[in-house]
Amino acid sequence: MNHTLEADSIILEFGKKRVLQDVYIKSETGKITGLLGRNGTGKTCLLNVLYGKLIPVNYSVRVDSKSQLTSTRQKNEMMYLPQFSYIPKSLSLKRIFKDFNLDFSGFKKQFPEFDKYYKTKINKLSGGERRIIEICVILLSKTKFCLLDEPFSHVMPVHLDSIKRLIKKESSKKGIIITDHLYEHILEICDNIYVISNGKTHLIKNKNDLVTLGYTTSLKNSQ
To answer: Largest Cα–Cα distance of the chain, in whole Å?
Structure first.
């Protein structure tokens, strides 16, 4: 079954500063949606509005046309990967995969080097290894939508292609929204890309729009 997440009419202010206004964004099953913007434009804020962690002055967030009127989001509807570590470091991989009701055998097919860590506490892993676990827990969860904040920025280059393949695979079953400063990966895997500029979202038609909207001055790194 296909599902749709839509948000519009978002006005977010901190004191006298208006961060977001006239925002629209859409995610749907089978598609990867990218969210780009320069530092401080409100990308993480928008993800937090979608997830219900941040309540703006005005907003409309809908899942399958049903308004999300409270800050509560059910895990079977939406999962959120924050920039910071969210899994307690005292837990082992075995406990993490059990608690999230995930299949470790499927995970180790993607990342066989983690097999030796099955009974290891996550605090014994490197920061990049922990990030892979955190990304996969969100992506592999039984949910309609995944919101990923900076999934590429803290992952070792050797694992980037594996993460991108997993994102593409899971997008066949859920809608995925990604924001990341490593925008060349966003351009590579996303079906639709929004850029936040002057508090508004703009659905880009081609890569040149990134220059027009002031996100970057050159596309030489994305060729």
So the answer is: 52
